[in-house]
Amino acid sequence: MRDAFDKFEAAGIKLYALSYDDQETLAEFAEKQGVQYTLLSDTDSRVIKQYGLLNEQLSKKDAFLYGIPYPGVYVCDENGTVVSKFFHDSYKKRESPEMLIDAALGRITIDETAPRAESSDDGIRITAALHGGNGSLRQGIVRQLVTTFELPEGLHIYGEPVPQGLTATEIKIEGPAGLVTLPMEAPSTAPLRLKTLDIDLNVWRGTVRFATPLYPVGALVSECRPIDEREVELSVHVTFQACTDETCLLPQTRIMTLRVELEEVDVPNLPIHTGHGQREGNYDSTPAMKRLVWRKVRKNPLRLLQFIWNRKRMERRSKR
Amino acid sequence: MKAERDELGFDAPAPLGHPVRASLPADAPTGPAVGDRLPDFSVPDAFGRIVNFHEDRGVSKAALVFYRSAVW
Lengths: 320, 72
Fold this sequence. Notes:
The complex is a heterodimer of chains A (about 325) and B (about 70).
Chain A: H1 5-10, E1 13-19, H2 23-33, E2 38-41, H3 46-50, E3 72-76, E4 82-87, E5 94-95, H4 97-105, E6 116-121, E7 124-131, E8 136-137, E9 141-150, E10 156-158, E11 170-174, E12 179-181, E13 190-194, E14 199-205, E15 207-216, E16 231-240, E17 252-262, H5 286-298, H6 302-319
Helix pairs in contact in A: 5-6
Chain B: E1 4-5, E2 11-12, E3 42-44, E4 50-52, H1 53-57, E5 61-66
Antiparallel strand pairs in B: 1-2, 3-4
């Protein structure tokens, strides 16, 4: 988010991030991490409750943890109306900032500087590039592999459903273990009616972009151990058939190889995170943690005992 | 410290099953729906300035992120 602030500004999108942290913590975090967007402090989780997002897996017994939301993002238009929202099954997975911007603007784009693979044949150029984070992969950040077709005038390719004898466009991505791909997003097709054959077709023409969201998990990038390799190879299999209104080229499959960088995960400097080999950065959050625990246990001192007990138990279990 | 891997393939330092490690329930609420206007609110920012969401946003598009904590 921090690194993409300029892109949000350029797109005219104001960025807000809300948590139950106190102002001092947020000010420190903003300063150390160079955060330029608005950090909102909802210490009593009032807004989190108002939005109905209070995490109910936690109870007040969980002391300092209680009050966090189910994490997610809303993107709203000029009137404040929600145009998209992103909530996931895991707090460790979130959309890349670039995807949020594209959702707000209703488009699929690529970064000009991201590494790309290219295949040109029959006058049809196909490129594949990762969108977001300058074309790299990072644990839990969903980025898109964008495949761009540049079709010459007069040619089109097909979307499902296709009649027998024609091949619909299909994009498959193969990568190392730990790479998770989600269903592909495609722009809407245009109808094409071939009167002579009495069939209806769904086609794309000109420059067409397909986006396959993907993200790496622990087997590939983990916040709990150093990265083994700096780069991985993705193999993009593109199957399609290009036709004019009269004749068709043979169906073809092009395989493109894209090398992408793996990025380290930033973790705050806190005993539970240290020693795992990931980038601990310059943000020591121990004082903030102490304030947080104090704020939460002040109302009920018993919680402090509960907290210490839970923490000891957690440390014992994680050392096993 | 030994890391464990959850069913989604993520590693984290806290043990599996601990609330901070639990995956979110499938029916976890996700708040206002697409097409709804975001409920208005006023909270302080990092510098103590009270921010009224819609007033501060003005006529801009906005992204509003709910996250767990900047601390841990």
